[in-house]
Amino acid sequence: MKKSAFRTITGRTLDLAGLGEDERRFLGTVQREYEKDPEWSEFAAWWAQELLCAGLGQGSVSYRVCQDLEARLGIAQGKVAPPDYRDFLADLIEERYGSRYRFCKETGVDPGHLSRVFAGRAELSLQTLQRVLEVLHAALVVETEEVVAERLSPGQAGADLAAAVAWVGRSKAVGRGG
Amino acid sequence: MQEVPRPVCVFLVPLVRDSDRLPHAPILWRLLQDALLRVVGGFTGPETVLCYRHRETTRGVWSPAVGEMPVEDLSRKYVAAVPQERIDELRALLRRVGNSFDQRVMYLEVAGYAEFLEVQPEDGFLEV
């Protein structure tokens, strides 16, 4: 993984290399707040307000990083379920197709059924899941609970974010100097 | 030019599903936030609406039906100043939230008046 990358709970890589100085500083502030191990909703309200004040929007990398950190706190505090295959699928669909509608149109998956699946009201049959995974160029992986816990850990994410933000800061300073 | 006053809307999103009392998947909270910013507020567009999320979860009691035992719920409380002409959009969004978050009824207050939005399957779901 690149040193400037932050990995979400579903394994999506968010590259911080292109961040401007203001956004990098914003993420530094977020990381310091996050290290205090705040309550889930408190952190959610805090970062949303800070993001607005920083002039960053829904399309920013910081928005996705903050949502991920919030989810990790929620999971650790027992207020959010750990991610399952639905979270991974939704992320892949968003990343590769932009919308559920486009994905369903191109793959023939029933959009209503997929919505019920994401809402936890239905499951994908193994056959459909295999077809969806093929289309998304993804694979089903079985992991031990220990590995999953480490991936979801708020502490690990905080450390990874700190390292990525610091690395980006150093590389920008070197770029300016050289 | 003086801005037209906006009704303050308050709504609650329970932390657990109605059917099995389990917490929601991370994707749902993410989709909710994305949709809320699109519908009632955002960082782009000509009509900016302030949207606050309360810092603390709210404790409340609701009764599933006459004769059934009340259920204590923890919810996330949201407050948004929404332009009058967009309140129906908010109601529609909350019904979709109800389906995605497995809720039979969604609580909404508009300018101090309480509404209990009954959720029907045809209201749809939050979308990726």
Keywords:
heterodimer; A: mainly alpha; two-stranded antiparallel ribbon; 2 strands; B: 128 residues; alpha+beta; six-stranded antiparallel beta sheet; globular
What this model shows, in words?
The complex is a heterodimer of chains A (178) and B (128). With 178 residues, chain A is mostly helical. Chain A is built from nine helices and two strands. Chain A has helices at residues 21-34, 40-53, 61-76, 85-97, 100-107, 111-118, 126-136, 145-152, 154-177; strands spanning 5-7, 13-15. Chain A has a two-stranded antiparallel ribbon. The model of chain A has no long low-confidence stretch (mean pLDDT 89). With 128 residues, chain B is α+β, with helices and mostly antiparallel strands. Chain B has one domain (8-123): Alpha-Beta Plaits, CATH 3.30.70. In chain B, strands 1, 2, 3, 4, 5 and 6 form a six-stranded antiparallel β-sheet that branches. In chain B, β3 (58-62) and β4 (71-81) form a beta hairpin. In chain B, α1 packs antiparallel against α2 (87-100).
Helices, strands, pairings?
The complex is a heterodimer of chains A (178) and B (128).
Chain A: E1 5-7, E2 13-15, H1 21-34, H2 40-53, H3 61-76, H4 85-97, H5 100-107, H6 111-118, H7 126-136, H8 145-152, H9 154-177
Chain B: E1 8-14, H1 26-39, E2 51-53, E3 58-62, E4 71-81, H2 87-100, E5 105-110, E6 113-118
Antiparallel strand pairs in B: 1-4, 1-5, 2-4, 3-4, 5-6
Helix pairs in contact in B: 1-2
